[in-house]
Each structure stands twice: as C-alpha cells, then as structure tokens.
Amino acid sequence: MKWSEISIHTTQEAVEPISNILHEAGASGVVIEDPQDLIKVWDTSMGEIYQLNPDDYPTEGVIVKAYLPVTSFLGETVDEIKEAINGLLIHDIDLGHNTINISEVNEEEWATAWKKYYKPVKISERITITPTWEQYDAVNTDEIIIELDPGMAFGTGTHPTTVMCIQALEKAIRPNVHVADVGTGSGVLSIAAAKLGARQVDAMDLDEVAVNSARLNIKLNKEQDRVSVRQNNLLDHVDGKYDVIVANILAEIILRFDQDAFNLLKPDGKFITSGIIRGKKEEVKNSLIQSGFHIEETLIMEDWVAFIASKPSKHPIEEEE
After folding, report:
1. Is residue 6 within 8 Å of 100, Cβ to Cβ?
2. Phi, psi (degrees; rounded to nearest 5) at 60
3. Residue 50 — very low, low, confident or very high, per pLDDT cuts 50/70/90?
4. pLDDT value, residue 112
5. How far is CA 202 from CA 243, 262, 311, in A?
6. Are strands 99-105 and 3-10 parallel, antiparallel or unpaired?
7. Domains of the chain from N-terminus onward
C-alpha cells in the first residue's frame, strides 16, 4: 500500500488541536518535530538514551506529520484537513506558518518513521511512560509504568500539558477517590489516576476514535476494572459527584464548562486543568475564580500552564440553599 505524508508547519500552541484533526481524518499516528526537544534536559536517570538529529527538526515553529493511505479520496481528505486547521483561527489559536506539504512514502518508512521519537520517559516522581515496543523494567519498587501505543493514541503522554496533569494528579489523588477525565484522548490520565489509587475513573471524550484508543490503552495497562470510557461532550448530562476532575484540553473549551466542573465536585474536590497556552493563563484563572474555585497551584512548563483548583468546603451559594 502507498502512503502519503502530510506535513504541517505550525506552532506549539496548535500541536494538540491539529493532531486531533489529523486523527479524525484517519491518521493512525502523528510525529511532532519540535526544536525545543533538542535543548530539553531529558531525564536519563532511568537509563534512557536520547539521540535526536537536529536535521530532523525545523529551525522555528513545530512540524506535525501524519500518514494517510493513498486513495481516490485523498485530495478531498487533505482539503478537509486544511479547512479544519484554518477553522482553529476562530478560537484565536496561532497557526504560525500554517504551510502544508504532501509527499509519498513507502510502507516501511510509514511504519517506523515516528518510532525514533518515542522512548521511555520518566515524567514525574513515580510515573514512567513507555511505548509498547520498548522493553523497560522498573528501577524503583514504587515506580508506576504506563504503556502507550502512540499509533492509536492522541499523544505520546510526554507533551508538557500531559506531564503537568500527571504531576498534578500525583498531588491530588487519594485512595478510593472518584475521578472524571474530560477529553481523555489516549486515556493516559485515566490510567495514571487508577494506578495512583483512584477507586473509579470515568473517562469521557466526544471523539469516537479517542474513545476506542482510550479503551485499548486502558486494557493494555490492565485498568479496565476501574476505568470506564464513554463518548460524551464535556460534562453534559453527567450525574454524581467527583473528588477530582481533570481536563487536558484547550483553554477555550475549559472556559465553557468550568462552572459544570464546580457543580459536580464534592467540597474540597480538585479541578486540574491543562492545555492552556501561557497567553491565556489569566483569562482561565479569572474564570475559575469567578466560578467559585480557589487556585491552589499554578504549574508552568515551556509555553504551557496548568492549574490545580479546589472547591471550598463551604460555598456561599450552597450555604444559602
């Protein structure tokens, strides 16, 4: 089979939504070429070796690549991808160069091109994420290993927004808590929550591809007894109360349902939000406070921001009721 490589020159801010667009268009995986990776201080305490070639990376911006089968509908698919990417401008997302190139690759190149970018990575004090094809043995007795197949996922789990979410979950998760993962994508946050001790995790995503990917990854990590996945739009029609709600999605989406999150949290519950570009930090922070949250901690990594917000044990509105 012939494959077509679609390469999009964009910005860090646009990586996640463009990756989702590519997955929805039928791509089974994405490659992210971010020059920041060349200067990042990688954790090698676990024995990982990173050999990144500067020639594989742009001098500025980020390149997102995906692989699509060459069919008679390829031209229409590419047009739809371009239209969807341009539609991100409505949400004030900086697309940068926003140039798209198409080239043909053989099946062997398609199957292995993106694997060189993905090695085991220790992303927090206890959690290491590894691809399914890499042999990795825990170094510490309390180390948690999460296996992901990025060929079917919405990310490798090592993007700054995901790393901050998992670090926040380490602080927020207590034994037997009930967690909601809004916009679960690959399911990595749900898996992390379960392995950190959550009693039950409700993973939700509007995209059917994400739902299927999350289910596969959750089963791969043997957490299907504690994590359930369903197709759902944010927190619409969700009943019950949660101890922790986590959402790694765009700032504009967080602004749409932060009040719903507040209403569905138990007193002293935590709302962990990420996927927020630095320029939208104050807007999201102010909205969370207006919804009744107390900002406990602000995490910043590269150009990204995450918040750990809590619902006060007593809220004026609830006292009046």
Report:
1. yes
2. -150, 160
3. very low
4. 62
5. 12, 16, 19
6. antiparallel
7. 3-117 (3.30.70.120), 121-320 (3.40.50.150)
